[in-house]
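Our preliminary data section would be incomplete without showing what the modeling component actually yields. Below, a chain of 588 amino acids is followed by its predicted structure, encoded as tokens that our downstream tools consume directly.
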Amino acid sequence: MPGIPQLWRHTLGDPAIVIGVVDGPPDLTHPCLTGANVEARAPWWLPATPSDGQGREHGTWTASVLAGRPGSILPGLAPRCRLIMLDHPTTDEHVPDPLSAARAIEELTEAGAHVIQYTLAHHSASDDTHPALKRAITHALEAGVLITAPAGNDYGHCAIAPALLPGVLAVGAHRADGAMFYFSNHGPAYTGHGLVALGEAVLGATPGNAGIKAQKGTCVAVALVTGATALLLSLQRHLGHRVDTHAVRQALLATARPCTPAQAHGQTERCLNGYLDLPAATAHLLGTPDTRQPPPAPALVPARAAISAPARPAPRPSPAATPGTPSTPSTATPVTITTLAERPHLADARPAGQPASMPAFLNHDTAGRWSQAARLDRHFPHHRLVATDPRGQIVGGGQAVPFALHAPGRDGRLPDGGWDDLLLWAYTDLQHGTPPDTLGALGIWVHDSHRGTGLADRLLAAMKHTARAAGLAELVAPVRPTRKHEEPATPMADYARRIRPDGLPADPWLRTHVRAGGRVTGIAPTSMVVAGSLAQWRAWTGLPFDADGPVIVPGALVPIQASLTHDHAVYAEPNIWVRHPLHPADRT
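Predicted structure:
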């Protein structure tokens, strides 16, 4: 993060500076938090409730980013400051609300916090919130507390509390390539008191296994701003100045850099006051000139997009969105993403041009052919995504199906049959009226003209949004890795374990899922099964199939097994299971 190394030359934080955070409970046994200056508190005004796994993961990640022990694998931004992590359960019984938020802010104000990060959120239809929360924030501001809060991840003009209140520093998120995330909220409620910071690929601790994970969202951006704020307050003390939270807040807002229309997808209001510029804020705070050349906003380097099987009305999508290879930077026009339920007239529309497709033989998967005949989109239009350009041409899409993962006999276990079993379970549950609890991702595709624009990431986020809107607890995906076809002899389990030095998966599409909050949990060894006579396989692939044993076919992830004696060949494609838990309340 630009500006942090320069501040670290002067201070790693000051124990007299107190950071208060309302989030999940941290795992203080993680190596980076063992011995760290972190205190975990429970909300005494709420009944004792065991924390859910997501809350604990979120709290552990936030604590490590702010206060990870110096010299550990994950040093925090302000590790010498004192951090108080105030747990707030996010269960069905304890959904974050304005009254509980008010009590949490009062608790941390009374504890002497200089900066309070309220990570949780509740929505507002009126750009306002409960008087009790406003009173608590007013009291905190009068006590000299700087309050930060995420702007939220709701794709547009969405006001969430407490970020909507003028005294709160609202924080939106931009991608690692400098472009704004589409999900980052904006609008009049944040005018004059918001900025944006990096909200992607920031590593933090995970509980229980001493692990590391990259997170994504406005909750990531707000943690970076909170850490930067604590360092600036510590710098004031280091220089013998009065600790002045108001001056720090004003410096951050006054020096925020405007974004370009390209970075903001044509809507510069998405960037709130602008991009965080910590070096400029430091110079402004100290009253010294910023001698740097005026920095440009972060470079716009397109991310990789995903491709898979042709969208409706062509064959069904491929397993959990198969991504494409890197493309050159694109100047693709803005894209609108909706569900088919919102635009039913697109049910029979064809994509603009010819979308990239999967190996042709996958179109002969039995479950896939059956789903085509049953018209998936007619049964599940709220989970069919359609992406169109300004001319109305389809340039991408996705399909998912709801099903009951925790029904008797399934018991929360993902099936070895992967993609095929998702279809079977979804249709069975639909026929029997079994209420779903999980959304299964069948595929995401992006047209060649929009590869390299981040559209695949947006479609994945939109798919998670449809799951939340339906009240489902989780999105699961049998992922078909991007580059596995280049080495069909490698066991899928070995391929799935490969990681980069930063701890993220080596495969690009797996990496996209993990960055979006997914977790690799296992292998679906027979996710798609295609069987046919040798004559059929010759027609599908153009290969001779004239010997017994394994046959390497372009595009296949594993060899196809052929038998001359029995005149047939079988392809059993393994996929990688990725689970995306969805928070019971908005942990932005």
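The CA atoms of residues 44 and 107 lie 10 Å apart. The radius of gyration is 25 Å. Preliminary results of this kind motivate Aim 1 of the renewal.
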